[in-house]
Amino acid sequence: APNAKNVKQMLLDWCRAKTEPYEGVDIQNFSSSWKDGIAFCALVHRFFPEAFEYSILNPNKPRDNFQLAFSTAKMAGCPPLLDAEDLVRMQEPDWKCVYTYIQEFYRCLVEKGLVKTKKRP
Q1: To 10 degrees, the CA torsion angle through 62, 10, 103, 45?
Q2: Euclidean distance between CA atoms 8 and 14, whole angstroms
Q3: Cα–Cα distance between 44 and 19 in angstroms, integer?
Q4: Which pTM was predicted?
Q5: pLDDT at residue 35 is higher than 70
Q6: Is residue 66 a contact partner of residue 84, using CB atoms and an 8 Å limit?
Q7: Disulfide: which of 13, 66, 95, 115 matches 109 by Cβ 3.0-4.6 Å?
Q8: Mean predicted confidence (pLDDT) in 47-72
Q9: What is the 3-state secondary structure (H, E, C) of the chain?
Q10: How far from 109 is each of 36, 86, 91, 93, 114, CA to CA, in Å?
Q11: Which domains does the chain have, with CATH numbers?
């Protein structure tokens, strides 16, 4: 069975792969890489491209970005486990919170058949 460290790395690699085509996203961790909300938006947009216009997002408006990403993620059935206000107040997001949210988003995508799990994600 994969250990927690492997799962965390696998999820980080998955996030990188899914957001790779997006400008302004460089995912290195589950904390500071997510602080302006753009990485969340890119990840969600990858699965719901019709939901919003990625190119007009502003990294200087993290609250708007978080709210947009989390409300759009509900289309996957993903509950709003994170609060935009809390994230804006922090210097950088708590990695455990981001990691938990991404795990849940991934699980919801798998449930909806939007992510294939046969091979590595």
Answers
A1: 50
A2: 10
A3: 9
A4: 0.91
A5: yes
A6: yes
A7: 115
A8: 97
A9: CCCHHHHHHHHHHHHHHHHCCCCCCCCCCCCHHHCCCHHHHHHHHHHCCCCCCHHHCCCCCHHHHHHHHHHHHHHHCCCCCCCHHHHHHCCCCCHHHHHHHHHHHHHHHHHCCCCCCCCCC
A10: 23, 25, 29, 23, 5
A11: 4-112 (1.10.418.10)
**CB distance 65 to 40 below 8 Å:** yes
| pLDDT over 80 at 118, yes or no | no
Alpha-carbon distance of 37 to 101, in angstroms, equals: 13
Q: What angle do CA 71, 76, 80 make, to 5 degrees?
A: 40
The pair of structure tokens assigned to 67 is 């709210």
